[in-house]
Amino acid sequence: MLELRNITKRFGDVLANDRVNITVQSGTIHAIIGENGAGKSTAMRIAYGFYTADSGEILIDGTVCRIAAPRDAIARGIGMVHQHFMLVGPMTVAENIVLGAEPGSALALGVTTASADIRRLSGELGLAVDPDAVVDHLSVGQQQRVELLKALYRHAQLLILDEPTAVLTPREVDEFFAILRGMREQGKTVVIITHKLSEVLAISDEVTVMRDGRVVGRLHTKETNAAELARLMVDRDVLLRVDKPAATMLGATTLRVRSLSVRAHDGAARVDRVSFDVRAGEIVGIAGVEGNGQTELIEALSGLAEASTVSGEIRLGDQDITRFGARARRELGIAHIPEDRHRRGLLLEFDLAENSILGVHYRKPAAYAGGILLDDPAIRRHAADIIAAFDVRPANVDLPARALSGGNQQKLIVGREFDLRPTLLLVAQPTRGVDIGAIEFIHRKLIALRDEGCAVLLVSAEIEEVTSLSDRVLVIHRGRIAGEVDPKAATVDEIGLLMTRGH
Amino acid sequence: MILDDRARSAPTRSPFRHYSDGLLGELIFPLIAVLAAFVVGGVMVLVVGDDPIQTYRLLLGSALSWPDGIGYTLFYATPLIFTGLAVLVAFRGGLLNIGAEGQLYVAAFATAWAGITFANLSAWALLPLCFLAAILAGAVWGAIPGVLKARFGSHEVITTIMLNFVAVALVGYFTQYHYKAPGDPIMQTTMIGGGAHIARLGRFIPGFPERIPLNLSFVFALIACLLVHLFLWRTTWGYEIRATGSNPQAAEYGGISIRKQMVLAMAVSGALAGMVGINEVLGYRYRHYDGFSANYGFTGIAVALLGRNHPVGVLFAAMLFGMMIRGGIFVDAFTNNVTKDLVDVLQGIVILFVAAEALFRGPFASHRLLKRSKI
Q1: Domain spanning B51-335: which CATH class is it, in words?
Q2: Which of A497, B75, B281, B320 has a CA positioned 20 to 30 A from the CA of residue A237?
Q3: Count of A-B CB contacts under 8 Å
Q4: What is the complex's ipTM, to 2 decimals?
């Protein structure tokens, strides 16, 4: 039994865990759910020794333990599989599994004996993985099994899994859950961190719900339902529901996509012959389980995908822009709010003033003298205007973007992109990891932009967000448009089925 | 409206604002590193049997005496300012230029070539021509790894190191077989035209003897610091280079061609390294002398590192290293056991400590200055 008692952890001014109490019974599958930033990963990383708590204690089978580093956790039978796998790509499965716990001596690695152990382990659990395969050649689902085996090889009795299904296809999720059930039957304990309600209901025995760094609910899965969990998680019954007038001034077709395909380097089509239109003055939503081609679709439309991987036709108005680069597309009025603000949207080390001109840094008002010299006062005014209009806090243009909270970073990006007065806005996961106030703010802004006649293409993993914001919803499944639904008429279940089954 | 007054009122900002922790917060680690190096170095002096206090007094005294100490210190610092800036610009663009050594070799030879080939031109024509030769040769030699990386993805660390060897061999060949005075036993070219000579500072400063080779190139180096600062933080090119170095995917998103930036950053970096040729050929020897560089290109990496990749930091770091080169010569000559290798040891330890900054952040982290600014 693992017990976290009164765990508190601060990062700077952010209280990530506030007197958190979690009890995980042995031999159960325990789900910890909450929105992004609710503190669930932090709590579990403390249990695994990745972070140390500012106060509070960790008990294993009733005795207080000091877990200062992951090796302490491993020694006590706790294993953790991270969202981002920690595998060495060019090495074999067996080599990866023994890494850091090599059975042999300094001269003989002992991988052969390990291979046998691994075969036995994977046989017991139905984790079919070839120990001699090279990790780089495995699918994501198989790599995850390697991570599981890595923990089990170290005799983990309790496994912590951080968002394990985020990278899996629906079919792989089913297989994965079967493995977890098998582990439970063997007496192992599983803690699964997730924000997907359906998974909690499908797999767990007990649930701990977290919100804003606190535990707000402890429930037996059998005695609860999705509605109750969702309410506990967000504490806002109708927050993602937006009251919006229907699209009134539907204009001409702004974006016309025909038979668009995007291929990965391995040749697999991530986006597969997709065709759709977006008209001025409407929001078209793309709903789908993450990893079904949304990212690639947006990158292809914004000009960020490598040209050689894209085929088909993209037209903006009556212009064929399929071969245009990112800058040329921006100049034609395509704005883009990227799904990952840290990876794409911001220069975290740069100050807000410098971030406010990314993408327009070479033209007025940011630059003068033929676009060579930067006009610092003008840039600061530009940033200050965006900061004022979009209520970015703290309102100090000299701060590095890193210093802002996620919500304020997102508002800065939204403000910057809106300032382009776009004819087409590509927006992906606009409210991910954003606080409640900012979510509503961003939603209102998106609708206002639509009503000004902008065409908006919205990608979101949140069904509620897509259906309540969009005028039309396209469901994407394995890179294809599985169907179009009317967001006012369709139920979440209907859309969910399209998302997971594709028909 | 919630708006910080500072955002609107102050028209210009401190040049040090690019330091995330404020000036003092940034300086504290280089200072600790230097101090720690002197302590460790002192122990070593003690071990080999000399008096550390005396040795350091000799080192600093000879480096800071007027006029010779300061003159030579700044003279030795000049090429290091250029190479430090070169490494800095590449680094800001996310590239590690290990090839400043090769770039400055090619540039020095090109400078001499221009000075020899057009020796009869007047100073007004010849001097700019030689400048151009230095800058262009360095830029081209620097741009090659940039192009290779942009087109084929070759890692710049490998290609710049390789090109160092090519540069030395190529320049050696031309010096030996085409530009050497007949019968000259030394590997050096003939003299450049008199119009291309740069004045020594002794001509302008009363009481500063002209025998000290410190020349106007030092002033050019100071100007280069200023220009690099303006380039990086006041031009769109600099913005694009820094954006690429800071987060290439975000730069791409902002419509910046990161391939172009690789080439541009390496070309500017090479041009700065090439300006060493101005000091060496136009200001000091008036010819290309094979093997003149005392690893200026490599020391430039250390200078940029100690200077925290900021032009002002590079300036001070280069002067510190200039002091050590000057002082090392005297330590070598006037102590019983310590050789000028002490200077290499000091430099090595400085770099070790700067690079190991993370270690310091732990135990000293409670100190106000050492905390990363968090809002």
Answers
A1: mainly alpha
A2: A497
A3: 116
A4: 0.85
